[in-house]
From TrEMBL:
Pathway: Amino-acid biosynthesis; L-serine biosynthesis; L-serine from 3-phospho-D-glycerate: step 3/3
Gene3D superfamilies linked: HAD superfamily/HAD-like (3.40.50.1000)
Similarity field: Belongs to the HAD-like hydrolase superfamily. SerB family.
Domain DUF4072: 8-53
Superkingdom: Bacteria
Cofactor: Mg(2+)
Coiled-coil stretches noted in the UniProt entry, renumbered to this chain: none
Residues of the signal peptide: 1-21
Record-given protein name: Phosphoserine phosphatase
Pfam family, one: HAD
InterPro entries the record matches: DUF4072 (IPR025138), HAD-like_SerB (IPR050582), HAD-like_sf (IPR036412), HAD_sf (IPR023214), PSP (IPR004469)
GO MF terms, alphabetically ordered: L-phosphoserine phosphatase activity; magnesium ion binding
EC number, UniProt record: 3.1.3.3
Length: 283
């Protein structure tokens, strides 16, 4: 997103005057636009001071993002989101595993995979194998009782609909959940892995190609091209290493309460606010 000037957007659950003033001084500006109790925009900032600003904000629980000045949310045409621990608060596979008493085993592998320590495809097959024999009806129980939208997701989705921005859910999880979320929330696109079922029970296998990091990036590019959008008209957000290639293909890559490997490579990291923070980045 080429721009010669940047706005520094500060966000926190409660953005008090003292840290706001301190960041303004660090960024070399007195042009402060107070948007709400949780959002402020600092104009005319010096991007060369990013490192000092980032260190201060991390220490004081603030989310800081440099965005091109004058950019509006309506300038985008597509938001691409991971599902587990991004659009929703849980890791679905961990909760499914809880139904067969192996959550602790699966959750450990999930965590290592998200940190980028394990090959995603191999780790997914390993985890799904532990689910063999589970009644398919248990998936409905997980969806009904445990799936909850991440705070601020409703605000983000409403902004997409109001501004004509398409929303795409792409997950290394399962279509059982993505398709239900797509229908319930009115999402435009949804892609995920298919759990194999036989005689009403999970076989412990996944059908078809695995939606891994490369597949996520490829799907983003395919839908972006279908819509006739430029790369800088796409926002992608995720939390794990499996999202990195997807984030790199977007004009704005957002790490949402993400693993360190993702935070350091994304354009923006939101660690303290909800998904409304994506909308608040723009005027």
């Amino acid at each position: 997103m080429p721009s010669s000037s940047y706005t520094l957007v500060l966000q926190a659950p409660l953005l008090s005057a003292s840290p706001l003033a301190a960041v303004a001084e660090l960024s070399g500006t007195s042009d402060i636009e107070r948007v709400s109790d949780s959002v402020a925009r600092l104009h005319g900032v010096d991007p060369a001071r990013r490192a000092d600003i980032a260190a201060y904000c991390e220490q004081h629980g603030l989310d800081a993002a440099f965005v091109p000045s004058g950019r509006r949310f309506a300038d985008f045409g597509l938001v691409v989101s991971d599902m587990d621990s991004t659009l929703i608060t849980i890791e679905c596979i961990d909760e499914i595993a809880d139904m067969v008493g192996v959550k602790h085993l699966v959750a450990e592998v999930t965590e290592r995979s998200m940190r980028g320590e394990l090959d995603f495809t191999a780790s997914l097959k390993e985890r799904v194998a532990l689910l063999a024999g589970l009644e398919e009806s248990a998936l409905e129980t997980v969806y009904r009782e445990r799936v909850r939208l991440t705070p601020g997701a409703d605000t983000l989705l409403a902004a997409c609909k109001a501004n004509g921005v398409r929303f795409m859910l792409v997950s290394g999880g399962f279509t059982f959940f993505t398709e239900r979320l797509k229908a319930e929330l009115g999402l435009d696109y949804a892609f995920a892995n298919v759990l194999e079922v036989a005689d009403g029970k999970l076989t412990g296998r996944v059908k078809g190609d695995i939606v891994d990091a490369s597949a996520k990036a490829r799907l983003l590019i395919e839908i972006r091209q279908q819509l006739g959008l430029a790369p800088d008209q796409v926002i992608a957000m995720g939390d794990g290493a499996n999202d990195l290639k997807m984030l790199a293909e977007a004009g704005l890559g957002v790490a949402y309460k993400a693993k360190p490997v993702v935070r350091t490579q994304a354009d923006v990291a939101l660690n303290h606010v909800g998904l409304e923070g994506v909308v608040n980045l723009f005027a």
